[in-house]
Amino acid sequence: METEDNSAIDVTHPRYESLMRRKRLVDGYKQGIVVSEGLIAHGRGEMFDYLLGETTLPVSLISERVAAAALSIANRSVISVNGNVAALCPEDVVNLSDIIHATIEVNLFHWNEERASKIKQVLLGNGAKEVLSENPDKSLEGVHHDRGKCHSEGIFSADAVLIPLEDGDRTEALSKMGKVVISIDLNPLSRTSLAASISIVDELTRAIPNIIGFSKEFVGKPDEAKEMLKSYDNVLNLRAVYGSIAARFEKLSE
Ligand code: PTJ
Predict the structure, then answer these.
(1) What CATH number corresponds to the domain at position 77?
(2) What average pLDDT does range 65-91 have in this prediction?
(3) What is the C-alpha to C-alpha distance for residues 119 and 3, in angstroms, rounded to an integer?
(4) Using a 6 Å CB cutoff, which residues line ligand 1?
(5) Quick count: other Cβ atoms within 10 Å of Cβ 247?
(6) Residue 19 falls inside a structural domain
(7) Burial of residue 162, with CB atoms counted within 10 A of its CB: 0-12 exposed, 13-18 middle, 19 or more buried
(8) Mean of pLDDT values over 224-244
(9) Using CA positions, which residue lies closest to atom 7 of ligand 1?
(10) In this structure, is residue 253 part of a structural domain?
(11) Residue range 238-249: mean pLDDT, rounded
């Protein structure tokens, strides 16, 4: 795979996956899908991924399973897609939406109609049948300005929303609207992780395939999904994430 300066990324490089994610984001930036702030946000995510050991914590597998349960029993679920998500894993987003029958909505922090349209094309090119994108007709309650824009047929009326790499303000607004809010955010201290109903602290391109796998298990099993959701405590789960990071550092410092 070629990088910006046309040098190849060596598949045997120990950080190959990480380098590939960076490449996808830089390519997305050049195509006008990712904003420059998205590159900074990715760097912040990478830093937190180091703290986790660049692996999915056992406790995050639990929140991913619960997320699959919640999405599988939702009446109206929506997957929110921003520039980074479209650049990193558009195919997985489409696959997940097919399995859980979710609407895909392009929802941007830095709103721009032209970029929303480009992201929609990326998703359609990856097999999406329908994508809500341009001309949002509603606003999230309490979030003014362009950041609140959303679609009445999508996020606004959804009972469950999957929000990868989301801003804290909007997460809080979605929670206040009474929705089941499922975040994917490597930062366990972010306002998003603190405000979500199910906080997945994991890297996006690891988390979505895991949710896909778990979603398949819940097909035709709504009672099992409801039971799983009922027994879940997000505060305890987040505490377990902090505990896992602390335990890792204790071990490293021995
Ligand atoms: O395309 P837009 O306009 O919607 O903008 C997208 C960004 C990501 C720039 C925007 O939503 C933003 O500014 O987000 P924040 O507030 O920086 O939050 C992004 C969060 O995602 C941070 O807590 C990062 O640690 C985390 N993050 C970044 N990359 C990943 C990640 N979490 C999981 N997987 C990643 N690959």
Answers:
(1) 3.40.50.12640
(2) 98
(3) 22
(4) 35, 37-38, 41-42, 44-45, 48, 82-84, 108-110, 165, 167, 184-187, 190, 203-204
(5) 10
(6) no
(7) buried
(8) 98
(9) 38
(10) no
(11) 97
Helix (H) or strand (E) holding 150: strand 149-150
Residue that the structure tokens 């660049």 belong to? 54
Averaged pLDDT score across all residues of the chain:
95
Cβ proximity of 171 and 163 under 8 Å: yes
* Axis-axis angle for helices 204-218, 58-73 (nearest 10): 50
> Which run of H or E residues covers position 163?
strand 160-164
The verdict on residue 47 lying in a domain is: no
Do the beta carbons of residue 103 and residue 220 sit within 8 Å?
no
For the chain, how many structural domains are there in total? Answer: 1
Q: Is the pLDDT of residue 48 over 60?
A: yes
β-pairing, 138-139 vs 131-132, is unpaired
Residue 73 lies in domain:
58-246
Residue 207 lies in a domain: yes
Q: What is the pLDDT of residue 12?
A: 85
Dist CA 252 CA 254 (whole Å): 6
